[in-house]
Amino acid sequence: MNRSDETLFDPRIADWLEDDPYAAPQQALDVVLAALPSIKQRRAARVPWRFLDMSSPLKLAFGAMAIAVVVGGVFFLGPWRPATNVAAPPTASPLASQSAVTATSSPTVAPVTGLPGTFAFRREDGGGNDVFLMQPNRSGLVQLTTDLQRDGNPMLSPDGARVAFERREDRAGNAEIWIVDADGTHETAITQTAEFEDWPSWSPDGTRVMFTRGTIARGAVVTMEIVIRDVSADARLLPASADEVVLRRDVDPAAPPGTNAPGFAPTWSPDGSLVAFTSDLEGENQLYTIRIDGTNLRKLTTAGATGRPAWSPDSSTIAYQQNRVDGCVWLVDASGDHSRAIAGDHCTDGPVAWSPDGTKVAWAGGSRGAPIWAVKADGSGLQQLTTDGVYGDLSWGRATAP
Amino acid sequence: MEQQQLVVQAAAGDREAFASLAASYVDRCYALAYRILRDPHRAQDASQQALLGAWRDLPTLRDPERFDAWLHRLVVHACYSEARGTRRWNNARVRVLPLSNVDPDPANSVADRQALEDAFGRLSPEHRAVVVLHYHLGYPLTEIAATLGVPVGTARSRLHYAVRQLRTVLDADIVSAAAIEERPA
C-alpha cells in the first residue's frame, strides 16, 4: 500500500476497517440497471482544443472573458427571472402520473376508501428521491418534483395549495428548503445558504415555515437550530440572519457522545403555540415540546421517541414512533401525560401523520421506503394501505390545487 | 472488453457498456460507502446514487483513465449526502457491550472495535472519508486531495485529526484494560 505518511498509519484501524463487507446486495445493481433508461445523460461541454494547451493564467483570462460575455448577455437580452425559480416538472399532470400508480401498486392490498385528505411523501423514482401527492385510496398521484437530488419530508400547507420540502444536493451534501405548488408548478427555494436546512413544517396560517438549520465549520456540525421563515405572499428570499430562532444548541466538543450535536425533527402545533420535536438533546432521542417564543422546553418521554412527531388537529395529542416490546406507534397528551401505544408492529424510523379529521394516524418509511400503514387513534383497525414499500417521509393534509 | 473502452462507450450512451461497468464496480462502491457510513442500507443507497450519477455525468468525464478516482469521488459525495440526512439518528445505533466481553488483547478486542465504531461515528463524513480512502484504498494524501477536490494540506489535517481521535479511544481502552487487570481481587 502506498502511504505517504507512515505516522498516520495504525494497524488497529486498518484491521478494523478491513473486517467490513465487500459485496453489495444484488438488488443494488438491479436498482441501478432498472433506473438507467429513465435518466438522461448530460451533454459534455465542448472545449476548444487550443484552450487545453494554454497556460493557466491564459485559461483564467479567457474563462473570465467567457463568463463576462454570458452574464452580460443574460443581463441585457434575457428576461429577468428570480434565480431560485425553476421550470415546472414535465410530469406534473395528475393524469400523466396516474399510470405510475397502476404500475407500482400491488393488487394484493385493495385500495382503502373513505379516508379523508391527501398524503404527501417521498418516493424513489430511479433518478433520485422525489416528492408526490396521493389520495389515501391510491388515486390521484401527482409527482411534484423530478430532479435528481434527494427531495424529502414534504408537508402540505394548511390551505392545501403548496408543499414545503427539503432538497439534498448530491454533490455538496447540503440541503435547502423549497416550496412547490400542489400541482407541481412554481418550484422555489426559500433558503440558499451554506448551512443545511431540513424538516420544514407550516404555521397554522400558512405564512411561515419552520425548519431545522445545521451550521458546519471545518467539516463538522457546530450549531443546530429550529428557525422560522416568513413565506407570506410578499416575502422575499431572505438571508439566514433574518430567520427567527426558536431553539439553538452549540456543539460542545467536550460533551459525551450523542449530546454534542443534537438533531431536531420539529412539527408546528395546529393551534400555533407549540413545537413538538424529537431530539437527542440528552443522548437518547426523546419527544419534547417548546413554545414558539423559545421558552418552556419540556421533555414528554423518557423511553425514547424517533422520527418526526405529528399533532392531532385539536393540538391536544402528539403521535410518534418508538419501537419497544410494548408498542411501536404511540400517543401522548400534549401535557406529557397518558402515554399509550396504538400499534405494536410495522415500525419504521419515519415520521407519523395524523389525518385531517383526527380519526387516524398513518406512517410509512423514513431512511428506507416502506408501505403506508394507518390505525385509528384509539388503536383499533390497523390497515395496510399499500403493498409496495416505496413510501417515505409521510405527511397527511388536504390538497387544493391553486 | 477493456475497461477504458467500456467507459468511452458508456459515455456515448451505451447502456449495456455501462451495465458491464456497474456490475464490475458495484461491490467496490458499496465497500467504500459502507466503510464511511457504517450502515448497510445507507451504503446501498449511496452506491446506487453514485452509479446513477456516473451514468448521468459520464459524458463530462474527459479522461477515461481517471474513471476509478472519479467514481470514488461520486461515492464519497453520495456518502456526504446520506450522512447529512441521517446524522441525527446515528446515536441510536451505538451498542453498549457488557464488561464481560472485554478482551485483554487490545489489538483484537471487541471493546476496541466498539470503541473505534463509536469514535468513527462521531467523526464528520469528511474526516471519515479521508480515513477510508487512506486505509481502505491505500490512497496517498495527494490522491485523496485530488479525489475529494481539496488541497493536500486539508487532506493531511483531516487525516491527522481523524487518526488522532481514533487512537485516543484505542489508547484509553488499553489504559482501562490495564487498570482492570491490576485491580485487586
Task: List the main descriptive attributes of the protein structure presented here.
heterodimer; A: 402 residues; 5-stranded antiparallel β-sheet; 4-stranded antiparallel β-sheet; B: 185 residues; mainly alpha; disordered C terminus
Notes on the protein architecture:
The complex is a heterodimer of chains A (402) and B (185). Chain A is built from 5 helices and 25 strands. In chain A, the strands form 6 sheets. In chain A, strands 1-8-7-6-5 form a 5-stranded antiparallel sheet, with no helix packed on it. A 4-stranded antiparallel sheet of chain A has the order 4-3-2-25. Chain A has a 4-stranded antiparallel sheet with strand order 9-10-11-12, with no helix packed on it. In chain A, a hairpin with a 4-residue loop joins strand 2 (118-124) and strand 3 (129-134). Chain A has helices at 11-18, 26-35, 49-53, 56-77, 94-104; strands at residues 85-86, 118-124, 129-134, 142-143, 150-156, 162-168, 175-181, 187-189, 196-202, 208-217, 220-230, 244-250, 264-268, 274-282, 284-291, 298-299, 306-311, 317-324, 327-333, 340-343, 352-354, 360-363, 373-376, 383-384, 391-397. By secondary structure, chain A is mostly beta strands. Chain B is an all-alpha fold and 185 residues long. Chain B contains 8 helices and no strands. Residues 86-108 and 175-185 of chain B have low confidence and may be disordered.
